[in-house]
Write a structure and sequence with these properties.
Elements: H1 3-19, H2 25-38, H3 51-62, H4 67-80, H5 86-97, H6 102-117, H7 121-128, H8 131-140, H9 142-157, E1 159-162, E2 167-170, H10 178-189, H11 193-209, H12 220-229
Antiparallel strand pairs: 1-2
Helix pairs in contact: 1-2, 1-3, 2-3, 2-4, 3-5, 3-6, 8-9, 8-10, 11-12
Length: 230
């Protein structure tokens, strides 16, 4: 029998058990077992392929209790995955890729609010996921798009131009290079006309607010716009 099918059967059994119990320690442990199983994927490239199933299951898991239950569960799984959170990040990505309906919207808002409550967690998720996947998520989810845009702007603001090295270098703990930032913006621009137009408008606004320079090596936004046109 297909291992993925078996995994989903076990997950559904765990979810049913969690939904039939009250919000207590036993219920939390049951949900954690389901979540940990959901986080186990042999290949990270399968995030998009199983997004419907994984995102839907996460929605059911988080909706098995109240908001406190959902936050406690996510906190606990994050704590347990310290040092190796990629599986958790993949499940979070799947939630933003799940089909648009009332349940998925609630799940996305819940997950995003939780990420924003944990300093650096949203940035870690974005850094962990590939530029291409983040662009797909931005096209699919308005909530993620706005959050990702904020992360990219924060990363850009952490770069300053080093005259001696003749390049933009990080000035904080955000280890994002100018090249990596450019690649991420390129993926967003290539994700469709609507997102491209919206992103270009935002970049022009940021350039104007930073002094509207047309020469290089002064404003990060000017240099990004120039690089993105190459």
């Amino acid at each position: 029998m297909n291992s993925c099918f078996c995994q989903h059967r076990v997950l559904r059994l765990l979810f049913t058990a969690a939904q039939e119990s009250q919000f207590d320690q036993n219920s939390l442990m049951t949900c954690k077992s389901a979540f940990n199983l959901l986080c186990r994927t042999p290949d990270r490239t399968g995030v998009q392929a199983e997004a419907v199933v994984r995102g839907t299951l996460l929605g059911k898991l988080l909706s098995s209790g109240n908001d406190e239950h959902a936050r406690t569960l996510l906190d606990s799984v994050l704590h347990d995955s310290a040092g190796n959170p990629e599986g958790l990040y993949d499940v979070i990505a799947a939630a933003f890729l799940s089909p648009d309906d009332e349940t998925s919207s609630v799940t996305q808002r819940c997950v995003l609010a939780w990420l924003q409550e944990h300093e650096g967690c949203l940035g870690e998720v974005c850094r962990s996921l590939s530029p291409g996947l983040c662009a797909v998520l931005s096209r699919h989810s308005c909530e993620f798009k706005q959050a990702y845009c904020g992360v990219l702007k924060r990363w850009a603001s952490c770069l300053e131009y080093d005259v001696l090295e003749s390049l933009w270098v990080p000035t904080s703990d955000e280890p994002v290079t100018f090249s990596a930032l450019t690649d991420r913006f390129k993926e967003v621009l290539n994700s469709g006309p609507a997102l491209k137009e919206e992103t270009e408008t935002e970049l022009k606004t940021l350039k104007r607010e930073a002094g509207d320079f047309n020469v290089t090596d002064i404003s990060i936004w000017t240099d990004l716009i120039i690089q993105l046109k190459l």
